[in-house]
Design brief:
alpha+beta; six-stranded mixed β-sheet; five-stranded antiparallel β-sheet; disordered N terminus
């Protein structure tokens, strides 16, 4: 029994030693295996990038040859044959383009009409790279972007120059549009995924990462991957290749599990905060629809959309929204904007995009509308709209202008400018509350008329302006600064105290009967569209008696019903002006004087 115990202790030590040695052996073997995996991953990355670079160089040679043919060699027939042969032998090329001065003028095949007259210098997908190509004289590769819903492409931009020496000048570009998936297929990227490998092919495009193939690079651990880099067409291409995780890596990963859980929670919080921030950059906080920045961003997607056959770009705003806000308050005005945004969403449906440009301006983009859509839009703009706030029902109406794609243009920024010009035409030249389609002469209409509001005009008028209701009380609604000064009042409160809120109280008691008769005549004259007038005495706030000449006209107001706009002059001041001849007496007043003189009445 004693001998047995003695034997067990050495056996236990041997077992522990064997386990320790096995662990050390596992580490050594694992390290060697890991080195082999790393070497193979690095070789795969460098090989694939070299194959892509070789393909790009081939496409570059084809564009250079195309430039030679287009500039010096042959006519359109020979150029077409050269391109046809090149595309047949290199199936990855989908479209070849000759672009003098950067504008796509010749395309092959000719059926690719969506690439006609594209300005590569300003197009969002190619503008930056085209500028580099022209400046440096080197071939640049731009992209990726979609040729169709299923075809992603890269553009090989070859800058072409004419002449030599001081006559050396930029001619344009020859361009090959290459199917990215076919190019990756030629490089046999699927071979990387064998034996548990994963990969990500991506480029850094002005501080943003664009994935060209495989997975997102952030999904592949840097600890178990090798990244190869290569300058291809003026851009650094990265190929990140991962290799299988060893057992010891898995054990280490378990030790980091709690840290990863905490990190994932933090990342989730940061991701949600980033999403909310991005949403706030592109949406209107009041209505929840897109803002102008978001609207422009969405429209960019349709620049090369081959399925886009027709479209409406519509500018809409609310009529007299400032007056509505002034009368009912901004809280009710905000409720109006939210309600109208919901109406626009229902009008646009699934084929439309709506946005708020700020204030009371909205936009609609309708993609491939049906035949009846314009009629529905005209009905929508022509009707009265209603909404409720705190149990009270309010009424409002709107105006709109529209430009059509492609008959009125293909650049969406330009189309919105034209729709806005049509909206301005609606508000100034027509009686609002309707749709106007853009016409070229609308671009040249002056907008100065829209730059003045009633306060500007009333404040700058060289006469006292008074507005009052056409009711039994003749209630005062507005008086400009000249009117307050005429009656010796420092502010509107003093004026209302003096008048008691009615113009009847402004007339001297000795002229009260005459003024009532004059007001009746004024009412009759206004009904026939004529100017009404009153000559009467009034007592100013400082106790000075004045004789006033009052010209007025009755108007129908959207919110206040029948009101009178009146201009008031102190007759003594007009006599002084007439005597000095510094300012002519207004024609309307002179006609009143002439008529009174003919009737034998005092002027």
């Amino acid at each position: 029994m004693r001998n047995t115990n003695r034997l067990r202790k050495p056996n236990l030590l041997v077992l522990i030693g064997c386990l320790f040695l096995s662990f050390i052996a596992m580490l050594i073997v694992g390290h060697n295996v890991r080195q082999n995996y790393e070497a193979r991953a690095a070789l795969e990355g460098e090989t694939k990038l070299f194959q892509i670079s070789h393909s790009i160089i081939l496409y570059q040679h084809l564009t250079e040859s195309m430039a030679t043919v287009a500039q010096y060699g042959w006519g359109a027939k020979e150029l077409k044959k050269f391109v046809s042969d090149s595309m047949r032998d290199n199936h990855g090329i989908k479209v070849m383009i000759a672009a003098p001065n950067g504008i796509a003028e010749y395309r092959f095949p000719e059926e690719a009409k969506e690439f006609s007259y594209i300005d590569f210098m300003s197009a969002p997908a190619t503008g930056y790279k085209a500028g580099l190509a022209r400046t440096t004289g080197n071939v640049q590769v731009a992209g990726p972007f979609y040729l169709s819903e299923s075809v992603r492409a890269m553009a090989v931009l070859n800058p072409v120059y004419e002449g030599e020496g001081k006559f050396h000048r930029f001619w344009g570009f020859t361009v090959s549009l290459v199917d990215l998936n076919e190019m990756l297929g030629d490089a046999n990227f699927t071979s990387i995924t064998r034996f548990g490998y994963r990969y990500s092919l991506y480029i850094d495009d002005r501080d943003s990462i664009k994935v060209l193939g495989g997975e997102d690079p952030s999904a592949i651990s840097a600890r178990t991957s090798v990244t190869s880099d290569m300058n291809i067409g003026g851009t650094i291409w990265h190929l990140k290749v991962s290799y299988p995780v060893m057992v010891q890596d898995q054990i280490a990963g378990l030790c980091l599990l709690l840290l990863l859980i905490a990190g994932s929670v933090l990342i989730s919080m940061l991701t949600e905060a980033t999403r909310l921030l991005e949403r706030s950059n592109y949406t209107d906080p009041l209505t929840g629809i897109l803002n102008r920045r978001g609207f422009d961003s969405v429209l960019e997607r349709f620049t090369h959309d081959r399925k886009l056959k027709s479209a409406y770009v519509v500018a809409i705003d609310l009529n007299n929204f400032k007056s509505f806000n002034d009368r009912y308050g901004h809280t009710v005005g905000d409720s109006l904007l939210r309600s109208f945004a919901k109406e626009l969403e229902a009008l646009a449906g699934k084929c439309g995009i709506i946005s708020r440009n700020g204030g009371d301006e909205f936009q609609i983009f309708i993609r491939n509308p049906d035949d009846g859509w314009q009629g529905r839009l005209e009905d929508f703009l022509g009707k009265e709209h209603f909404f409720s706030h705190d149990g009270i029902r309010y009424e409002f109406n709107v105006s709109g202008g529209a430009a059509l794609y492609p008959s009125m243009g293909t650049d969406f920024t330009d189309l919105y400018r034209k729709a806005d010009a049509a909206l301005y035409h609606t508000k100034v030249k027509h009686n609002k509350q309707r749709l106007t389609l853009f016409e070229e002469e609308m671009l040249y209409e002056s907008r100065e008329q829209m730059g003045f509001n009633f306060s500007d005009l009333a404040g700058g008028a060289p006469a006292a302006v008074l507005i009052y209701r056409n009711d039994d009380e003749r209630k005062v609604m507005y008086a400009n600064h000249e009117c307050l000064s005429l009656f010796g009042c420092a502010d509107m409160k003093e004026f209302l105290d003096l008048s008691g809120g009615s113009i009847r109280n402004l007339v001297h008691s000795r002229d009260a009967g005459w003024s009532e008769l004059a007001m009746s005549r004024q009412q009759a004259g206004a009904a026939s569209g004529q100017l009404g007038y009153i000559i009467c005495r009034a007592m100013a706030n400082n106790g000075i008696e004045k004789t006033l000449i009052i010209l007025s006209r009755k108007m129908e107001h959207e919110y206040f019903g029948e009101i009178f706009y009146a201009l008031l002059w102190d007759r003594e001041d007009l006599h002084k002006l007439e005597k000095n001849r510094s300012v002519p007496v207004p024609e309307e007043i002179q006609s009143v004087r002439d008529r009174k003189a003919a009737e034998g009445q005092p002027a």
